Amino acid sequence: MAIFEAHGVTKRFGGLVAVNQVEFALDEGMIASIIGPNGAGKTTLFNVFTGVYRPEEGSVRFDGHELIGLRADQITTLGMCRTFQNIRLFGNMTVLENILVGMHSRLKLSAVDALLRTRRFAQVERAALERAQEILRLIGLQGKGDELSKNLAYGDQRRLEIGRALASEPKLLLLDEPTAGMSPTEARTLMRFLRKLRTDLSLTILLIEHNMRVVMGVSERVTVLDYGLKIAEGTPEHVQRDARVIEAYLGTRKVASG
Amino acid sequence: MRNSSAAIPTIRAVLRRPPVAMVLASVYILGTGALVAGTPRSLPFFLLFIGSLLLLYYLQLPAWFKAVGMGVTLALLMPFFGTRNGFYMEVATQVGIFVALALGLNIVVGLAGLLDLGYVAFYAVGAYTWAIFGSGQLLKSWPQLSGIFPLGGGSPTGTAWFFVFLLVAVAVAAITGLLLGLPVLRLRGDYLAIVTLGFGEMIRVLANNLDHPLNFTNGPIGITPIARPPIGPIQWALGALGIEATPAQIYPVYFYFIVLLVVGIVITVTNRFKNSHIGRAWEAIREDEPAAIAMGVPLVRMKLLAFAAGASFAGAMGVLFSAKQFFINPESFTFLESIGVLTMIILGGMGSIPGAILGATGVTILNLQILKQFSLTLNDWKNAGVTILGYNLANLPPQLEPAKYERMVFGVILVLMMIFRPQGIIPSRRRKMEFEEAALEKEEFAAEVVDTVEPKAE
């Protein structure tokens, strides 16, 4: 069953068509990837999905809701959360607070609750703290809750970003180049972690990757973008053999041989 | 070396023992209190006395003792000294007003990271809200309303409407905050600063010119007399205790207590907002707006809440200010005033509640007392013809009048602070960590360099 569907999505920046008539769908519980060379429109597509950009054409549906026209925070509340290609943690807040901000949309509290310190406020905050500690354990940052997030090691920051997104209790997790800057070993560890997350939290995961090799082992379906167009889609094996994909990554035969 | 390093921790450890610290704090408060009571005109003694609040904040004491200590200092000793030297009451009331303003601006600038250079506009809105209705001002354009205004009939013993308008002004200022917030939602940093600066000026210019065609604000001449809070119950209570007091004696202390109460509420509200999902959302917006939205923080609602909360404190203080001063005109709400409040939170420590309180107290006392005293002393020397380094001060040209040094000294203090303690006097936990960690990293780096350069001895 498709949990996420995009039809005919087109996003233009002036004369440049960054994403062109893209059709895309995700089944519940799958790990899928969007790959493509630099500038193929992967991140733009991501930004359209998550409400940062509004596309000129097309529709995006998630879990029965039309997303076009919704704000990014509303989309997060519906159960989609993302990470960023260049890490965007709240650097001067502690690790724990980063996670707690991620929970914002799930805390059923009003300003009045905070002002009057109602019993509900105490309960919700306590539950949130416990849940945040759980997430810290899950991402292997237990004991580091009080550190400023900007002082974490690079790999820890990447994991914290995932943890922060998980705190919003998403059904669909979108990861924008999560292995950027990682060694092949670290990348493999991360992919194993993602597979575990998928089963433990019954998530659907969508990855964006620049590096084709990273996602081949983990993805059930790979979509290839080039110049804003979807040029191939299918199992990793299928996509790897696709002539247009090879061309997009390696150039035309003439260039490659010459 | 060894002795001192061994002795210092023991002294510290002794000081940390609650009973010792409690005795110490009590002795200090009562001792400095006695000094102030003995010589009510002495500025140094007064400052030492104010310092007892800092002592209570820093010493490791049980919470109940801190509460009692601050209660005694602020609610008993301070008003008592105020009856001996009325100026202290004026200083303490002004300090309270600025503490509330600084805390309000601290929400907007320190927590949500929205640089607001027109904050005094909300203060003006509050002040004019009460001034217009609490005086005969409206009769100038609508004489037929003479049965209604001024509210309370201009009674010399004040009117309970004052308290109603304290709440009304909170609402009006909060709505003004929303009105400012809406158009600037998409702005950040410098652009936001410029727009808010313009907004602050707009409100002042509006107050200056809204005397025609219909006279609302009486323009540059200002509004007076403005009604005061009701004194009846106080007089009755004092009478029951057998104390005779004139309104002129009661009002300064009365205002002090109202300000104290409002500041208490403001501190509670700020604290509760800060330590909740709302405070976290504000700080997330300050740190990285797009990431905050992506994490589900409703940007518009949170920014507007910050503007409204900050503005409402200023609105309440505006009402108090106009009633206390009896008279207001647009001159009290200039751009410099906004900058003054901003200075307080920068000096105190951005985003930190104790910092904003200390910053406001420090700057207000500095302006009202220390720098005044400084220029008065210089002036005395000048008049007495004191000679410094062979130069007779009596020969000073009028351009170098001592009174003109006040601002300069203040500026020098600001610059020194920014050089030696850029994080503020009491930085927020986070900012403190930032600065300390930066220093630590430097040290670690230096150590690494030393390690690599010098071969390790076996």
Shape of chain B: globular
Give the overall pLDDT of chain A as a whole number. 91
Oligomeric state of the chains present here = heterodimer
> How many domains make up the 3D coordinates of chain B?
2
Q: In angstroms, what is the radius of gyration of chain A?
A: 19 Å
Q: How many extended strands of chain A? A: 10
**CATH topology grouping of the largest domain in chain A:** Rossmann fold
The whole-angstrom Rg of chain B is 25 Å
Query: Order of strands side by side in the largest beta sheet of chain B?
Result: 1-2
Largest sheet of chain A: 6 strands, mixed
Structural class of chain B: mainly alpha
Largest sheet of chain B: 2 strands, antiparallel
- The percent range for strand residues of chain A is 15-25%
Annotation field: number of helices of chain B: 17
| Largest Cβ-defined interface | A-B, 40 and 28 residues
Poorly predicted sequence stretches spanning 5 or more consecutive residues of chain B: 1-5, 454-458
Calculate the mean pLDDT score of chain B and round it. 87
Overall geometry of chain A comes to: globular
Counting DSSP E segments of at least 2 residues, the number of strands of chain B comes to: 2
CATH architecture of the largest domain in chain A: 3-Layer(aba) Sandwich
Order of helices and strands of chain A: EEEHEEHEHHHHEHEHEEHHH
